[in-house]
Amino acid sequence: MFVNELIGKYGFKHLSGENVDRKIENAYSCDLLSWVMAKGKHDTAWITVQTHNNILAVASLLDFACIIIPEGIKVEQEILDKANEQEVVILSTELDAFEIFKILYEAGVK
Amino acid sequence: MNTYMKNESNVAMKLHYDISKDDFSRAGEASSKIKNMLRQLAIEANILRRIAIATYEAEINLVIHSLGGTIDVYIKPDCIEIYVEDVGPGIENIELAMTKGFSTATAVAREMGFGAGMGLPNMEKVSDEFIIESTIGVGTQIKMVVTY
Ligand SMILES: Nc1ncnc2c1ncn2[C@@H]1O[C@H](COP(=O)(O)OP(=O)(O)OP(=O)(O)O)[C@@H](O)[C@H]1O
Ligand SMILES: [Mg+2]
Q1: Domain spanning A3-106 has what CATH number?
Q2: How far apart are CA B113 and CA A41, in angstroms?
Q3: How far apart are CA B33 and CA B139, in angstroms?
Q4: Coil, strand, or helix at residue B79?
Q5: What digits encode the pLDDT tens for the residues B53-110?
Q6: Residues 6 or more apart from B13 whose CB is under 8 A from it?
Q7: Omega prior to B89 cis, within 30 of 0
Q8: A50/B contact by beta carbon, under 8 A
Q9: A32: nearest CB among B32, B56, B116
Q10: pLDDT (tens digit, 9 = 90+) per residue, A36-81?
Q11: Which of A32, A36, A48, A61 to mutate to test the interface with B (most CBs of B within 10 A)?
């Protein structure tokens, strides 16, 4: 599955980052950053409720495909500006982590 | 036992970063710069990833736990050496600090997702050589080597 399918087909909001043609190979959800640092794989769609600028460092250092902010949580413009600078794709959705996993799984992320 | 000492032999390039304490808004910047620099040198993805983890965790610990410090990266023909030094407060019990899950992170830091007690174990895991020394009231020094 590609990041842009989440936007086009499933109505996820595209908040930052231009590179939405990336393929999602893995999915992961965790809000403890050093746990994510230990476990995160490349090309991951990372679901987190953290919205401060450190998620950008984690996502770009680990080459994640995108960050997904669940349950309609808002992200401040300042963070989105930084995300654009660092070319980190952030999406948001009203769905919770389980619903997001279902979409990813059914679209072939396994 | 190996002791902490900078190895000045065969250094092709040096990078140096100053890290301020409590500067959450910039935390992660140095590790991102290091990664971008090493990527330009065409260092392999797997090595890049290990260095990214090592420098990120070191940088965050300097911001959260230390009074401020530095990260020096020595790029060598066969390895990358990372030296992390701070000016205090030092670690009382290194063995305890190295234990997965041990953390003295504040409530504020924990709310931001820090404080899993995984940083030092992560650093050790990705390093081929890992040395940590600390003196209370003086500071902490960490050497990490990632061999190609
Ligand atoms: N530079 C430092 N100066 C003083 N104490 C430190 C330093 N680095 C680590 N520590 C101590 O060691 C503990 C463990 O560090 P570690 O990086 O493993 O976990 P953490 O930073 O608390 O949480 P996490 O890294 O998972 O976000 C810290 O909670 C802190 O008490
Ligand atoms: Mg840490």
Answers
A1: 3.40.1390.20
A2: 18
A3: 25
A4: strand
A5: 999 999 999 999 999 999 999 999 999 999 999 999 999 999 999 999 999 999 999 9
A6: B41, B74, B75
A7: yes
A8: yes
A9: B116
A10: 999 999 999 999 999 999 999 999 999 999 999 999 999 999 999 9
A11: A61
Strand partners for B16: B72
Residue A5 and residue A14 in contact, taking contact as beta carbons nearer than 8 Å: no
Q: What is the pTM of this model?
A: 0.96
What's the rounded Cα separation, in Å, for the pair B59 and B119? 10
Give the residue among A62, A21, A47, A56 at the shortest CA–CA distance from A103.
A47
Mean residue pLDDT across chain A: 97
Once rounded to an integer, what is the mean pLDDT over residues B15-31? 93
Asked whether the beta carbons of B54 and B82 are under 8 A apart, the reply is: yes
Q: How much is the average pLDDT of B41-54? A: 96
Our CA angle for A52, B20, B140, nearest 5°, is 115
Report pLDDT for A92: 98
Closest CA to A58 of B81, B119, B70: B119
- pLDDT above 80 (res B1): no
Nearest residue to A64 via CA among A16, A96, A26: A26
- B6 and A CB contact within 8 Å: no
pLDDT at A107: 96
Question: Chain A: nearest CA to B119, how far in angstroms?
Answer: 6
The residues, any chain, with a CB within 8 Å of residue A15's CB and separated by 6 or more, are A69, A75, A80, A83, A90, A91, A92
**ipTM of the prediction:** 0.92
Residue of B nearest to A61 (CA): B52
